[in-house]
Structure formats: C-alpha cells, structure tokens
Amino acid sequence: MSKHKTIRRYTLEIEKIRRGQFPSLQKIKDYLFEHGFEIGDRTIQRDIEQIRFEFGIEIKYDRDKNGYYIDYENSLNIESFFRFLEIVNTAELLTESLLESKDSLKHISFDTGGGLKGIENLKPLLKANKDNRKISFTHFNFHTEKSRKYTLKPYLLKEYQNRWYVVGIIGGFNEFRTFGIDRIENLEIKTETFKPDKKLNPIEMFNKTIGLVYSENTPQTIVLPFTPTQGKYVKTLPLHSSQKILIDD
C-alpha cells in the first residue's frame, strides 16, 4: 500500500477518534470500511502505535468507556499534525484526479504566489533541524535589497500563506530569526552540531501569533464584531486557533 493510502487511513482513524465519543475498535473498523478500507483489528492497533511513534500523537484506550481517545496534553505538536494530514490528503485527492484525467488541471486554480521557490531546500533543512546541525546560507533581504551570509542554529520549519520559513538562532544571540527559504541560496549543512536550548520553544512562541512577527509582550484579548455574513466566514475559517465565539446573533 502506498504511503498516501496509509496517511489517508491514519486520517480516517483520527477523524473518528477526534469526535470525542470514545469509539471502540469495531466502530473504527466500520468507519474505515465505509470509506473503502477493509482491514483487521491488528492493523488498526498497529496504526495507533505508528501514529504515536512517527508523529508523537498519544491515542489511548479508556477501559471504562470501552473506546479510544486522544490525549492532547501528552501529544506533541498536534495542530501541526492535523495540518500535515490536511496537506497530504489534499495532495492525494488531486493526484488521483489528475491520474484519471490530465484535463483536471483545466478545472483547478492554484494560488500562484510563488510558494514553490526554494522548496528543494525543505528536505535538507528538515534533516538539519532533526539532527541539530548548524547551517549556513546566503539570504536576500527585501528591505535592504542586499544579500548576506548567515550561520544559523535551526529550530523550526514554519509554513505560512503557502511559503516556508526556517526559524533559528544566529551566533551568540538568544532570540529567533526567521528566513524565507524562497530567498535562501548556497545552503550548506554543517557537520558541526549544537545543543538546543530547552527554554526556547518557537512553536509555543508562534502559537500566540498571526503571521511571522512575534512579540515577547503579554497577549491581549481582542473582541471583534462582524456582520452576519462576515461571521459565517470567520466561523468556518478562524483567524487564530485561540478564537472563541462569545455571542452568535
């Protein structure tokens, strides 16, 4: 079975469990069968183990309720995992459509913002992040219109509005810098490693941010009113993960 199909199976299992109704193994299996997957109990149990091992998502069994649930507190980067599933499944569905008919491209309009420039650097950058290897590169600054060489301790790869960025620390500084990979050239993965500072957590930092510019200030509560029509858009596509509906009239 292709990796795409395996990820699709993971997605369906997560979908069923996320609903918070503690589905049993049989209910998960029935849900998969409804979506074209005829598999056994052991395969589902192995999937749960793999989701924990590969992605750090803790799926546990509640004996009292005779079903499975996601332990959000002990799961790593769960929002990133859900976004990953969304991207992979979208790619799979589009790939299937294109294989069925190349004319499908006539009926699809992508956001052509140039997000693919520099995408070849994504894999080596991810490996450098995982292996705690320093990197060096030349980066073009839009404000100064000049290129400059940097040596960076990479901590995170971040996607925002169809573009990818590497987030890390330069030299002896103790604050994060963000670099668009579409403006990176002459990337070199160093043999020199570094020890990440456990006190620094860029994911947590960006959790309180919209976009790429962050502040160390205390987050503020903002209340926004909308017209009924605007409200429908904001409910289906939230501005931020912390968004809550106070009044829905």
Key phrases:
249 residues, alpha+beta, Arc Repressor Mutant, subunit A, five-stranded antiparallel sheet, two-stranded antiparallel ribbon, 7 helices, globular
In DSSP terms (H or I, runs of 4 or more residues), the helix count works out at 7
List SSEs in N-to-C order.
Answer: HHHEEHHEEEEEHH
Q: In terms of quaternary structure, what is this?
A: single chain
Number of strands: 7
Radius of gyration, CA atoms, in whole angstroms: 21 Å
The largest beta-sheet arranges its strands as 6-5-4-3-7
**N-to-C span:** 48 Å
Characterize the overall form. globular
Biggest sheet character? 5 strands, antiparallel
Strand fraction: 15-25%
Fraction of helical residues: 25-40%
Total separate domains: 2
Structural class by SSE content: alpha+beta
Plain-language structure description:
The protein has 249 residues and is an alpha+beta fold. The protein has 2 domains: 78 residues, Winged helix-like DNA-binding domain superfamily/Winged helix DNA-binding domain (Arc Repressor Mutant, subunit A, Orthogonal Bundle), CATH 1.10.10; 130 residues, no CATH class. Helix content is 35%, strand content 22%. It is built from 7 helices and 7 strands. It has a 5-stranded antiparallel β-sheet with strand order 6-5-4-3-7, with helices on one face. A two-stranded antiparallel sheet has the order 1-2. Strand 3 and strand 4 form a beta hairpin. The longest helix has 23 residues. The protein is globular, with a radius of gyration of 21 Å.
